[in-house]
Specification:
Number of strands: 11
CATH topology of the largest domain: Rossmann fold
Largest sheet: 6 strands, parallel
Structural class: alpha/beta
Helix content: 25-40%
Distance between the termini: 42 Å
Strand content: 15-25%
Number of domains: 2
CATH superfamily of the largest domain: P-loop containing nucleotide triphosphate hydrolases
Radius of gyration: 20 Å
Strand order of the largest sheet: 7-8-6-9-10-11
CATH architecture of the largest domain: 3-Layer(aba) Sandwich
Shape: globular
Length: 344
């Protein structure tokens, strides 16, 4: 376990989506966060006390969490210098970037000298096996998306919490660095060698016979050229009974790919259901979750009703409005709404 409490790193970030790991910890493990560290040119805040590295250490922070994400997951010079300062102040370092902390000689040497730890959250387990796609017992729900970073993790946690509130057994299964930091365990599926992606998910959510749910965090999108391979492996390994589609209606293009439009909701849902049927022939869609954080409440509600009418599925913003309607759809023995082609 990564020692808490944490000082959350924002650095020079100006992109709210780019600080999703720090943001996720501030949202779901706020009691473990003493403050945030950001440079003067960062326009963002998590609503935590702003602290220098030294102030964070004095406030009791045991670990600086480099909770930022960038294309390729690499560390720039400023980030390394800030990590050095944290080690010198007596803090461990945790990061979910593809570039490993241990592979930065200066950080590795200083951590050894200070008897501190470097936590590379994106390290997959060493004993991954190739997936087989054979049917296995258990009830599983997977979140999928029209794009990356559209709210799949938030939705997955909301679904798991809502199931437990109904008296169901449910476990959040994390597949990304933010979810793993929140849950304390998981498989960083985008760091797994391609041949082992589906097997990694089979191991993350193995056979279970207690009637409980594995609520699996999705990654990427079948329609994102950079990440569709990970999304495909997830669909096959999860063998989901049900899918929930996540979407950010404020997006004008695929994240990181200006000029490439997002798919339509029905188109995206159809593609995910078809892909999932390879290992889960009876998979069904049970809802749509929108990230309406940039919309007025009445506008968001109207959009949810519009999507419901178009797809014949419950639609909500899991943070603003909850996921009760989706849980109703999930737990009912027969769909309560007329099924569209996408919902069959």
């Amino acid at each position: 376990m990564i020692p808490a409490p944490y000082l959350l790193y924002l650095g020079h970030s100006t992109d709210f989506v780019g600080i999703k790991t720090s943001r996720g910890l501030a949202e779901f493990r706020r009691g473990d966060c003493v403050g945030e560290f950001r440079h003067d040119d960062s326009t963002l805040t998590l609503g935590l006390p702003r602290m220098t590295i030294e102030e964070g250490a004095a406030a009791g922070a045991k670990t600086l969490v480099l909770g930022i994400a960038n294309s390729g997951g690499v560390m720039g010079g400023d980030l390394v210098r800030d990590a050095v300062a944290a080690l010198n102040a007596g803090m461990n370092i945790a990061a979910g970037l593809h570039q490993r902390l241990r592979d930065v000689p200066e950080l590795a040497a200083l951590a050894r000298e200070k008897n501190l730890q470097l936590f590379d959250v994106r390290d997959p387990p060493a004993d991954m096996k190739v997936g087989n796609g054979y049917a296995r017992a258990g009830r599983r729900i997977l979140t999928v998306g029209t794009d990356c970073s559209v709210g799949k993790m938030y939705t997955t946690i909301a679904l798991a919490d809502a199931l437990k509130a109904r008296g169901e057994k449910a476990d959040f299964r994390a597949t990304g660095q933010t979810g793993i930091l929140i849950a304390g365990s998981g498989v960083p599926i985008d760091a797994v060698v391609a041949d082992f992606i589906s097997g990694g998910i089979e191991a993350l959510a193995p056979e279970r016979t207690d009637g409980g749910w594995d609520v699996i965090e999705g990654q990427g999108s079948l329609f994102h050229p950079s990440f569709a391979g990970v999304s495909t492996g997830l669909l096959h390994g999860a063998q989901p009974e049900a899918l929930v589609l996540c979407h950010d209606p404020s997006r004008s293009h695929m994240r990181g790919l200006p000029g490439r439009a997002l798919p339509g909701l029905k188109e995206c849902l159809e593609a995910n259901l078809q892909t999932a049927r390879l290992t889960s022939p009876n998979v069904r869609a049970v809802g749509v979750c929108l990230n309406t954080s940039r919309m007025a409440k009445d506008e968001a509600e109207a959009l949810c009703r519009q999507v419901e009418a178009e797809l014949g599925l419950p639609c909500t913003d899991p943070i603003a409005f909850g996921v009760e309607a989706i849980i109703d759809e999930l737990l009912c023995s027969e769909p309560s709404r007329p099924a569209t082609t996408a919902a069959r």
